[in-house]
Amino acid sequence: MAPAAIAACGAPSPPRRSIAPSLRCAAPGARPRHNHVLHRPSAATLPVQKPHAVGRQRPGRAHCSQTEAVAAASSTVDDDEACELVRGADLVIGEGDDSVRAYLFEAVKNNNGTGILLLSDIFGFEDSATRDFAYRVACNGYNVLVPDLFRGNPWRKSLPAEAEGFEQWLSGHAPARVSGDVDACTRWLVEEFTAAGDSKKLGVIGFCYGGGRLVETLARDAGKNAFSAGVCFYGSRMDASLGDRIAAPVLFVCGDGDALCPVETVRELERRARGAKAVVYAGRGHAFAHRPRSEEEDADAEDAFNAMRSWMHDHLLA
């Protein structure tokens, strides 16, 4: 990956201080007790101008609207209540060297019982842009699990930006180990939500690096059918040949100016994967949906979020 391509991923957002008590899942299928209520981040902790805007400035637009809550769960919960009552918990899934840290966002009053696995970009599961997006998804009634794909060593701005430095960092995250962690989190979601009878369906969302892993995850899921829908935001290093093995319908979102996610690859995946759909935004580059850098990108980011929300609702809840 060239320095320019690394820069296209966007600057990492600072990790958010953990505000939930640590919780370890020691026994498969055990129902954890999540006692901490995670309230919407305030202007004191994030640089926002409006009380509804989480993570980035968007004057006049609420992140969690009554429309979002109704679309997700036909909820009549008040706007502020739906968005403020999101429970957060630190998790450790698995035991010993095979354990993986994760963070769970749970909707409270409008919880639809459905689990979603969110696979981050290279900046990891503690990056605020990733957690803000997961928080928004949870506001729509979902239970969103964000695993630490990099075992405490995400890409940092302070690391060497040249391609060799990036590849050296990436080589420290063996694909087999990453896929094993993703599969462990998938099993946890199955045991926690589908096997427990809370929901019959699970979804998966991936950004950039996580988008590439989403394609691999759904290909491995063939025949198991743990996931019923996916949304891939500008996945990097995606193997289009895996599309033939993907059974869950996937929405692919990208920009036509993204060197890390060629439109040709997205179109091939759309053609190969059953029920897939591609949405390509003109003039947009990498990371525009969760790291917008302008008012124009912000508008497309909002549109992409709404497309994701509708896709998940139609395939997981309708």
UniProtKB/TrEMBL annotation:
<feature type="domain" description="Dienelactone hydrolase">
    <location>
        <begin position="101"/>
        <end position="315"/>
    </location>
</feature>
<comment type="similarity">
    <text>Belongs to the dienelactone hydrolase family.</text>
</comment>
<dbReference type="InterPro" id="IPR042946">
    <property type="entry name" value="CMBL"/>
</dbReference>
<keyword id="KW-0963">Cytoplasm</keyword>
<dbReference type="GO" id="GO:0016787">
    <property type="term" value="F:hydrolase activity"/>
</dbReference>
<dbReference type="InterPro" id="IPR002925">
    <property type="entry name" value="Dienelactn_hydro"/>
</dbReference>
<dbReference type="GO" id="GO:0005829">
    <property type="term" value="C:cytosol"/>
</dbReference>
<dbReference type="GO" id="GO:0009507">
    <property type="term" value="C:chloroplast"/>
</dbReference>
<dbReference type="Pfam" id="PF01738">
    <property type="entry name" value="DLH"/>
</dbReference>
<keyword id="KW-0378">Hydrolase</keyword>
<dbReference type="InterPro" id="IPR029058">
    <property type="entry name" value="AB_hydrolase_fold"/>
</dbReference>
<protein>
    <recommendedName>
        <fullName>Carboxymethylenebutenolidase homolog</fullName>
    </recommendedName>
</protein>
